[in-house]
């Protein structure tokens, strides 16, 4: 059986209180009149829960949170990195240290507001070599004097 609810209308007209049955999903303007005994006795089906019960401490749920998983993973990497570095062959170790040096140089140049130099260090290009190459190319080409712009007043 469908869950039947009641609509209670309280007005100043006669009768002051009228009650209609209502089935969810049907029109509210349904004019089916069912006489109910007066006074109407409504009993609650469940007690209202105004406050949520406080949950107890659960260490497993705490360890399963994404923040804790990231912290645990970072801690494991922190302690495993020296062990992994000691087991690497010397050539790979030199290559890793060279990349770390480039990364530190890029970070320091970016912190000094030299974003172009920092990106160049990250990408492995050297701006000074590029500037020298372009200046040499421009000096070897035919020299054409650019037109001077008139001064503004």
Structure, explained:
- By secondary structure, the protein is mostly helical.
- It has 2 domains: 1-39, no CATH class; 65-133, no CATH class.
- It is built from 5 helices and 2 strands, in the order E-E-H-H-H-H-H.
- The protein has a two-stranded antiparallel sheet with strand order 1-2.
- Strand 1 and strand 2 (17-22) form a beta hairpin.
- Helix 3 packs antiparallel against helix 4.
- The termini are far apart.
Tell me the layout of helices and strands:
Layout: E1 5-10, E2 17-22, H1 59-63, H2 66-86, H3 90-111, H4 115-123, H5 127-140
Antiparallel strand pairs: 1-2
Helix pairs in contact: 3-4
Offer a few descriptive terms.
ER membrane protein complex subunit 7 beta-sandwich domain-containing protein; 46% helix; two-stranded antiparallel ribbon; mainly alpha; 153 residues
Q: Which structural category fits the helices and strands?
A: mainly alpha
The strand line-up of the biggest sheet is 1-2
The total count of helices amounts to 5
* Biggest β-sheet description: 2 strands, antiparallel
Which whole number gives the mean pLDDT? Answer: 77
- For the termini, the CA-CA separation is 92 Å
Return the string of H and E elements. EEHHHHH
Tally of extended strands? 2
- The portion of residues forming beta strands comes to 5-15%
Residue stretches low in confidence (pLDDT < 50, at least 5 long) are none
Helix content: 40-55%
Structurally, the number of domains stands at 2
Assign an overall shape. Answer: elongated
- Cα-atom radius of gyration: 40 Å
Biased composition (Low complexity): 134-145
Pfam families: EMC7_beta-sandw (PF09430)
Transmembrane segments: 67-85
Membrane topology: Single-pass membrane protein
């Amino acid at each position: 059986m469908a869950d039947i609810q009641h609509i209670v209308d309280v007005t100043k007209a006669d009768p002051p209180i009228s009650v209609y049955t209502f089935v969810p999903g049907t029109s509210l303007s349904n004019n089916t009149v069912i006489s109910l005994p007066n006074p109407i006795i409504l009993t609650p089906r469940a007690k209202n829960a105004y406050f949520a019960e406080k949950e107890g401490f659960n260490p497993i749920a705490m360890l399963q949170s994404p923040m804790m998983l990231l912290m645990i993973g970072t801690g494991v990497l922190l302690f495993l990195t020296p062990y992994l570095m000691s087991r690497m062959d010397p050539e790979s170790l030199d290559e890793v240290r060279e990349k770390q040096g480039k990364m530190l140089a890029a970070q320091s140049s970016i912190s000094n507001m030299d974003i172009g130099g920092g990106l160049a260090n990250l990408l492995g290009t050297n701006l000074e070599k590029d500037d020298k190459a372009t200046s040499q190319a421009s000096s070897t080409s035919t020299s054409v004097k650019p037109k001077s712009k008139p001064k503004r007043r």
